[in-house]
Design brief:
By secondary structure, this protein is α/β, with parallel strands linked by helices. It contains four helices and four strands. 19% of the residues lie in helices and 10% in strands. Strand 2, helix 2 and strand 3 form a beta-alpha-beta unit.
Length: 172
């Protein structure tokens, strides 16, 4: 597989040729999946996080506003409060999943033909009700919810979803 995206050569987890000094071939083995035609087409994924900058040139084409919501402003728009590229976690996650392929920009998403949305939840004082609603938002439309957030990591305590989010996950 050849892509013209300038950062693809650095995405060792997608195609490890030993470019970072590690053993070649240790990656997620996605090339055979792509060769079989599975690229995310027809799949809607929503990132529950701090927002998704859908104006990013690698995400713009695959962005799906119907799979997006801002719990703070109560609008169907997941723009982060700040375009802080040091901590643009939701945007970064969206790129890992759905960055457009062969547009000469950045890298390639693992499901580069999928539709991506953002559910901005982490900018508010979250409670079980908000968390449960986010985990079931548009559940007849969104196929996959990506959650890579959790409690503050102090190295000592362990957090888990409350009762309402757990029910939302079971029914999702």
């Amino acid at each position: 597989f050849e892509f013209n995206d300038i950062k693809f050569k650095d995405q060792w987890y997608l195609h490890n040729t030993g470019q970072t000094g590690g053993p070649a071939g240790i990656d997620i083995n996605v090339l055979p999946v792509w060769r079989s035609g599975i690229t995310g087409r027809g799949v809607v994924i929503s990132i529950i996080d701090d927002g998704v900058d859908y104006t990013h040139p690698d995400l713009r084409k695959n962005y799906d506003p119907r799979a997006s919501y801002d719990f703070e402003k109560k609008i169907f728009d997941s723009t982060p409060n700040e375009k802080n590229w040091v901590n643009a976690h939701g945007t970064r996650c969206a790129g890992e999943i759905a960055a457009q392929a062969n547009n000469k920009i950045c890298g390639v998403g693992v499901a580069y033909n999928s539709r991506i949305g953002g559910i901005k939840l982490l900018s508010i004082n979250m409670n079980d009700s908000f968390e449960a609603y986010a985990l079931s938002f548009q559940n007849n439309y969104i196929d996959i919810y990506s959650n890579s957030w959790g409690p503050k990591d102090d190295g000592k305590s362990y957090g888990k979803p409350g009762e309402l989010p757990t029910e939302a996950l079971k029914k999702g």
